[in-house]
Queue: 2 jobs
Job 1
Amino acid sequence: MTFRILNRQVLSNNIKRLDIEAPLIVRQVWLGQFVILSIKPHDDKISLPIIDADSQRKSITLIFQETDAALIRLGQLQINDEIYLVAGPFGNGVTIEKWGSVACIADGIGIAQILSVARALKQVGNKVMNFIGASTRASLILQSQMRLISYKIFMATEDGSFEKRGRILDAFREFLNKDKVDRVFTAGSAELMEGVCALTRPKNIKTWVCLNPVMLDGTGICGSCRVTVDGKIRLACVDGPIFDGHSVNFEDYKIRLNATKEFAWDNLKSFVSPKRSESKIFEKFLLGILKK
């Protein structure tokens, strides 16, 4: 089975949207789940949250930021191009109820992930307060979509190029000091989610976070998506990716995220003395083996 790209959209300089034909996945998808895809056979696997599913077009929507080589290649695909593999849906979905006043807080690419949650919250009758932020106006995505589903909306950019200057966490802090919310959902950077949980914990407001560690197989076999929740190791691909934020060890989560970052080897200082040639070092190494 092949998976054809039905629609492609550039949301900002390095953020793309793809609508992909995936009829079997559309039948089973649940809010909060994700897929794993490979552009070509033997390519790197990419895990991405499902932003939306269209039963009429039999397609799923993925929104992603081109943060590495594999995602850049994905972003270069065009309409009618085919993707070799889209597997899923994986993960546990989230059950949405009518709680009353619900806040959704997200920054960066996390705005895409929180959009479907906020939409579902409104559909069952909640008053949804949306808080979205980014570093610049150009990287603040999905503004119009978030406005349509908001009872109130708050936006911020760190450079002050749009709406309020500063972090969106600060806007949520100000709101929480004056108003009451019954539930909170948050997605995006680890720092934002940790900060939101620090604000809601003393007020005992139930808070869900959307974690996105690297997920390679979606079945828990590889263990690459290990996170610590309530003092126990959990696998985001089978136990999540949405967790009770007050139980998540964010220090461990940040270590997990940073562990996947590659070193820029060409920028590292050489440990070899310029006075000793590589051939001499190799010759000494071989002599050491022969002596043994």
Job 2
Amino acid sequence: MTARVREGVFFEPPTPLPRGPHQLPREQVQDAQRQRLMMAFTELLADRGYQAVRIIDIAKRAGVSNDAFYDVFANKEECATAAHDHFAAVLERRAYRVDVAPSRTWREFVLSSVGGYLETITADPVVARAFHLELDGIGATARQRRRAALLHFAEAQMREQERLCASDPLLKLQPLIIHLGSVHGVRQLACDALEAESEPDFSVLIPDVVNWLVAAAYGKTMDGAD
């Protein structure tokens, strides 16, 4: 049986629409259908891989008609791209925690961002599997969106490091390519864990990854030596 995404992590199932004639605005109906379709696509992607997912299957799992699917998305790839963009936006919000006070040290920031990312994908392994292991099968457009999202994360990380350098003379401001490499590296560690286990505990990666990123930013080896 195809596993369901876990409510309240990446997706919040919309309130069921009333049956039969109703006075709900068209935009409200389409928003609810869009959310259900993205959830259904993500579940099927994680279970079957992109090529085996059909629009009729997405619509059936979402509880809407094929016509309703085409009212919201032009094709399967557009649904896939929208679902991935939603996934990336939630990861950014949970990793960089824009609603909390700024970090006081680089270690505090790295622990918050890496911890937020890994704890979030631990909380919903179905979504993690879909967009970490099955995304490549969607095609070039989805891969380009993934690269753009990872670059965006790296830029946010570099900006935070630049801010913290002003109060920490020992902290070394690293070029964007270093931040991009670290973002890709952490993601690859998550992919490897998903290949090894169906529901890995990503949190076990946090201590070593945090030490790695902190040591690199201070120009030190992992044991603290210059």
